[in-house]
Amino acid sequence: AAVGRIDTADGDLAARLSGLVVAGSPAPGRSLDLGRARIEQALALEGLKDRVSLTGPDLVRVTRKSRQVTGNEIAAAAKKAVEAAYVGEPGTRVEVEVRTMPPPVEVPGGETILEAVPPEPGPGGMVLVPVRVESSGKTEATRSVSLRVRVFRDVVVARRDLNRGVTLGTGDLTLENREVTGPSADAFRKVAEAVGRQPKMA
């Protein structure tokens, strides 16, 4: 960004001065003090010092505008991505809890996009979801969000207590929405899958 005004009728000199890089841009939300000596050094390196007269203050403070993407925003993007991963599975719902709140990210002004990459839908448990923070088409940072995912699905259960050795029929079974994290993750999803089998426990 420009930090001064160029006043010359020499088109070639104006073009060279416009392209002169005196210092890198400060990080979003940060400031940089730019002194006369630093400007003169940059002019000397380009062979322009004797052709330019500087006017104005001896020190210019350059501040880069920014906005803060909060940890809550980043965590919300991770939760939304995990919940969306299970959309389309009939009889399935998820409960997502943030276990570790990520630190905020300072980004320059402009459109901000949060892109989370959830794991493949599974039985739940602890998951780590990376979230990329992008501003004006540039990735500013990636934050990882620790989540606890509880998955509930319609699974086959017995309507009543059954004895070992009986052959299961449709009248013995029904569907209930239960948490399937852990050993129950392999439960039958359809009554027809369990019909004709025998229970392993009384």
Features of this protein?
202 residues; five-stranded antiparallel β-sheet; 4 helices
Structure description:
The chain is of the alpha+beta class and 202 residues long. 18% of the residues lie in helices and 35% in strands. The strands form three sheets. Strands 4, 6, 7, 8 and 9 form a five-stranded antiparallel beta sheet that branches. β7 and β8 (138-158) form a beta hairpin. The protein is rod-shaped and about 100 Å long. The chain starts with 10 loop residues before the first helix and ends in an 8-residue tail after the last helix. The mean pLDDT is 85.
Shape type:
rod-shaped
From the alpha carbons, calculate the radius of gyration and give it in angstroms. 31 Å
Low-confidence stretches: none
Distance between the termini: 76 Å
Q: Could you state the oligomeric state of the chains shown?
A: single chain
> How would you characterize the largest beta sheet?
5 strands, antiparallel
Give the strand tally. 9
Structural class: alpha+beta
What sequence of helices (H) and strands (E) makes up the elements?
HEHEEHEEEEEEH
Number of H- or I-type helical stretches? 4
Proportion of strand residues: 25-35%
Mean pLDDT: 85
Proportion of helical residues = 10-25%
